Amino acid sequence: TSYLCSPGVGCSGKTMEVEAGRPTWSRPVEFTLAGIGCAVGLGNIWRFPYLCYRSGGGAFLVPYLLMLVLLGIPLLYMELTVGQYLRKGPVHAMANVCPLLKGVGVAMVAISFIMCTYYNVIITWALYYLFSSFQSQLPWQSCNNTWNRANCTDRATNTSTSASTASQQFFNYRVLERTDGVEEPGSLRWELFLLLLLAWILVYLCIFKGVKSTGKVVYFTALFPYVILVALLINNVQLPGAASGIQFFIVPEWEKLLSVEVWINAAAQIFNSIGIGFGSLMAMASYNNFSNSVLKDTLAIAITNSMTSILSGFVIFSALGYMSYLQNIPVSEIAVDGPGLVFVVYPQAFLSMPVAPMWAVFFFFMLLCLGLDSQFAMVEVMITSLLDGYSEPLLSFFRRNELLVLAVCTGMFLLGIPHVMQVGIYVFQLMDHYTAIVSIMFLAFFEVVAICWLYGRSTHTVEMMGRKPGMFFRLCWMVICPVLIAVILVFSVIQFKPARYENYVYPAWAQGIGWLIAMASIIWIPLAALHTLWVLPGSFSEVIRRSVSTRPSTFLPRLSFTQPISKSLQSSVHSLLYSNPSQPAWKGREFSYDLSSPSYSKGRGETHNRQQTKDEIHLNAKPVTHSQMIILTF
């Protein structure tokens, strides 16, 4: 196999979009923005503010930020390193890291597959609200509508537990037209069906060209939500009662720090919010240039994610304080988390704001952007894994990458149809509960074991990072992170509560289906481990030893250069030599490349191979012009 690149500009950086046969981000900032978009999602808006309020207000920031430093940043650093260094999606990357736990990568893809079937329904709801906001009077403003029930009230009240607001009834009886439980499937909501189709079309348009299209989309979808958040904050803090709402959010209750549950919640929020264990960031990092600064991206993604959560808290609770002031009820009776916050409570807050439809349009468009970023990141995990393992047969059948992406999106759309039926909200809540809470914690534990205890101890990470990781990261990888994840896993099992939606309790058979959904991803870890033990040759002890050892062919040989050579060219050589780690053609050889040939078209580039006892590569680099090409032949 031969690869060509211009030595004048190298094979990395802004000028290159394909490195070693694998597409790369056109600019490093595109991956950074895509990573931020993947990490910053709807959970930052509807989960963190409520969790902070219930866990001690400002005091919660102490364990939250501590877990960011001890858990979030080190694990994200390692996960991005694995993806960028191995240049593979989670399935093949984890197989190289630890063959026995290659099922962790398969489980990542399985979880992304399951989540893709239901996560897009949130974008569907956001689109419904977005289109409904383009009118002078918001449809959830009064009880004078055909869908309203007799117990409808125009404002929240603490005098009746049976009354429901116009905003609640709009979501339940107009948008969802929900039934009374999962036992009653109801009929298809055709409006939501068409909007779900539109949502998948938007996702397809974002990713159909791979990182070339995604890299352009994230400039808008990752940045525009901050414009809206800042605008909402400026507007909200000027409203009467906003200060009291913010007090509920930030006033510390230091005694809450004595609760183990608060610390567990902080660690779990960091873990789930950043997206460690989903495989999305690992897959996107596999399209980085080999010399990309992993630590810089890690800090940018992790810190931006946490700061966004805190900013969202100020935006949400300033609005809740305003509602509390208008309706004369405590903030504690208004604050909720989950879909109810962004599709019931916050839309109600718009009603008393000046130019309410404008703020509603901005808010739901922001939700659309946040949802799209997370959704196409999860789809990217599946596309990357499919192309890593079956690129030749898939591209032979589909002819073009765009058609493969279309087939995947179409399949996900069809599987998402149950969520736009009248029973959809119950299906959504059941799947989200058992996937996001149960599966992720088990998967996270085994990923930490594979990466931190096996890959993390490898000195070969120096090849990727350019230097030996500091004592802080090594301590976190080897001790702190595994212990914290194990503690979170144990407490998650102990404190586990069956799924429910508001006051509705799922029947036993539905809970059983929920556990099957959870097992659909977890089961791949033991199955893949058994497969590895079965196929590896040798005695039992040899099989065990080889199954938990990082594959030698995973890593690059040492490089030495007989003459000065640019860093960009060094990066190119690293990437090109590593294009096919399963067949390390460099093993046991010395390669000498003559870069002084005047023209590739005359075929004067020469490659000389001879057997060598050491895994070294010497490049005889001489000054060349921009028009000349490097010829690397394996």
Low-confidence spans: pLDDT under 50, at least 5 residues? 1-20, 552-563, 578-634
Q: Strands across the major sheet, in which order?
A: 1-12
- Major β-sheet profile: 2 strands, antiparallel
- State the total count of DSSP E strands: 12
Q: What does the overall shape look like?
A: globular
CATH architecture: Up-down Bundle
What's the number of domains? 1
Class of secondary structure makeup: mainly alpha
As for the CATH topology, it is: Amino acid/polyamine transporter I
**Could you name the CATH class?**
Mainly Alpha
The termini sit apart by: 6 Å
Protein name: Transporter
GO biological process, one term: amino acid import across plasma membrane
GO molecular function: amino acid:sodium symporter activity; metal ion binding
Membrane topology: Multi-pass membrane protein
